[in-house]
Design brief:
13-stranded antiparallel sheet, 19 strands, 10 helices, 25% helix, 35% strand, alpha+beta, lipid transport, globular, 379 residues, two-stranded parallel sheet
Length: 379
């Protein structure tokens, strides 16, 4: 079988203008999909037609959060700062940068079990693996070679239909270790909301907490819901506000405010000094398309190879080819599942050890660092 990899450019701020004029046909198509779905229903296994897929797997989208920046090394900056408070501010900046624009009515492919995504960007190497399909759980390990940083995601999402909107709760953990500093930063994930009425939209909402037990510092960020009225005023759309404080005394050190798709500012509450800590136009605009550096080293389970036919169909608007590509992947997964069931075998992830306690998942990478990948993002 011919090895074939299809890579699409990450969706970024510069692409957003082209997607803002959502057609009435798309809205009607989306609403028709939920015609017979009851409010409160779990949409985990809900299948979208290829016209509503972006040509990337969810694994690739998770990876982009870590590595895909416009020539900036926001992750490495977290370790280069001399003072603990400065390192936490940099961690806040990196966390905000993981918030990417969303396209209403569009979603990535649901990864199949065993699917992987291995990519490098500068000193950052990322390896993600789909370790479960029901529920869909992703494990991600990234290492920064130069600054000795370790990133670990183990997360899963539960989408539910709420009548006027779909709520996607992203559960699990994100942990970043600055090994040279002996510091661990634990953080959670915001929710994704896709609203149908009274106005269409897709946005992040909820609270994000970032905590470092070693320094006794933490941050809390709030993403207000993008209400119907705020869409017209523009004041709260993609707004972010929060604070940095001492864990023990709750003494507030910095106030955080701004818009995550524009600029975010930190105010030193002792001196009154203002500092722009994040500028979206400098970091997540004009993102570059990954390239294949060595095709022979690309794994057969790589997302860009697994979904290559479907992605080709979507990018060329050949919807029959896209449907065939998706159908082939999904049928192959079902057949593999049947074979494991008949033989009595359970799935074992290739790159992670997994511990499950009830509904909670914990993942540990089998290797201490992620090697260079055959797929790279140009600097």
């Amino acid at each position: 079988m011919k090895r074939h990899v299809v890579l699409a450019k990450p969706f970024s701020l510069e692409d957003e203008k082209d997607s803002e004029n959502t057609t009435s046909n798309l809205i009607q198509r989306i609403l028709s999909l939920f015609k017979n779905v009851r409010p409160g229903s779990d949409l985990t296994n809900f299948q979208l037609p290829p016209q509503m897929n972006i040509p990337r797997s969810q694994l690739q989208c998770y990876g982009e959060m870590v590595y895909s920046f416009n020539g900036q090394d926001l992750l490495g900056e977290c370790c280069r700062r001399e003072q603990p408070i400065a390192r936490l501010k940099s961690m806040v900046t990196w966390n905000i940068s993981t918030l990417r624009p969303l396209i209403f009515g569009m979603a990535p492919y649901n990864p199949i079990i065993g699917e992987t995504h291995h990519v490098s960007h500068g000193h950052i190497n990322v390896l993600a693996e789909q370790i479960s399909h029901h529920p869909p759980v992703c494990a991600l390990h990234a290492t920064h070679e130069k600054e000795n940083i370790d990133v670990m995601f183990c997360q899963y999402f539960t989408p539910k239909f709420r009548g006027a909107y779909v709520e996607v709760e992203v559960k699990g953990k994100r942990v970043v270790k600055l090994l040279n500093q002996g510091e661990t930063y634990e953080m959670n994930n915001p929710k994704l909301l896709m609203t149908f009425l009274p106005a269409t939209g897709a946005h992040w909402a909820g609270k994000i907490g970032i905590k470092c037990p070693e320094t006794g510092l933490e941050a809390e960020l709030q993403l207000p819901s993008d209400s119907f009225f705020s869409r017209f005023s523009g004041n709260n759309k993609r707004a972010i506000k929060g604070k940095i404080f001492e864990s023990s005394s709750r003494k507030q050190l910095y106030e955080i405010f701004g818009h995550w798709d524009r600029t975010v500012t930190a105010k030193n509450l002792k001196t009154g000094e203002l500092e722009v800590i994040y500028n979206a136009s400098e970091n997540i605009a004009k993102l570059k398309t990954p390239i294949v550096k060595n095709l022979q080293e690309v794994s057969e389970t790589e997302s860009a190879m697994v979904w290559s036919k479907a992605s080709e169909g979507i990018m060329s608007t050949d919807w029959e080819k896209a449907r065939e590509g998706k159908r082939y992947v999904e049928e192959r997964q079902r057949e593999s599942s049947r074979q494991r069931e008949v033989s009595g075998q359970s799935w074992t992830p290739k790159h992670f050890s997994v511990v499950r306690a009830g509904k909670d998942w914990d993942c540990v990478p089998l290797q201490p660092s992620v090697p260079k990948a055959p797929i790279v993002v140009p600097l």
